[in-house]
Amino acid sequence: MLMELSIGFKSLIVEKKSRFSLNLLLAMEHQSAIDFIINQMRDRIPSRLKYHSLDHTLAVLKSIQSSSKRAGVNGNDLKMLLTAAAYHDAGFLNTYQNHEEESCRIARTHLPEYNFDAEQIEKVCGMIMATKVPQSPNTKLEKLLCDADLEYL
After folding, report:
1. What 3-state DSSP class applies to 48?
2. Which residue in 16, 12, 22, 21 sits closest to 2, CA to CA?
3. Which of 34, 72, 74, 144 is the most buried (most CB within 10 A)?
């Protein structure tokens, strides 16, 4: 017997007798979330922005990839850190002032589509908000993002 299982905007047809892990289905799709915002930035970030450009975001992501290894960050923490790095300046798509708040609004709007839960989204937003000048990181992940953000200078 077949049944349809809907999770957010995705549907799966599974045999009712089949055993599967819902956790596997609900795993954060961080790479798809990152790809989404990178494509948005590539297409829409104002060309007048020289520092807060797509190149800056890509440099922050590259820095996070190496610094997270040294810091022993992995698993979901690494996925959230990389996601925060990708979204940290996404607010510039819509505004220059208070872009961190706008970056969080964008993250809160889109990350649920990629199976991020409310707690994960708040951690991502905490990392993004820590990059607001003057920077105010409180956690290891926030400090790593702030360091990567300033490394581009």
Report:
1. coil
2. 16
3. 144
pLDDT digits (tens, 9 = 90+) for 11-42: 333 343 444 333 444 577 999 999 999 999 99
Q: Which two tokens stand for residue 84?
A: 């925060």
> Which helix (DSSP H) or strand (DSSP E) does residue 15 occupy?
strand 10-15
The predicted pLDDT at position 113 comes to 97
Tokens describing residue 19: 């055993």
- Once rounded to an integer, what is the mean pLDDT over residues 47-55? 76
Alpha-carbon gap, residue 57 to 141, rounded angstroms: 17
Integer angstrom CA distances of residue 94 from 1, 52, 101, 124, 148: 48, 13, 11, 19, 23
Q: Is residue 7 over pLDDT 60?
A: no
Listed range (13-27, 39-53, 110-124, 125-139) with the worst mean pLDDT? 13-27
Q: What is the pTM of this model?
A: 0.81
Phi-psi region of 90 (alpha: psi -120 to 50; beta: other; left: phi over 0): alpha
- Cα–Cα separations (whole angstroms), residue 29 to 36, 50, 72, 73, 76: 11, 30, 21, 18, 10
- Residue 48's φ and ψ, nearest 5 degrees, are -70, -15
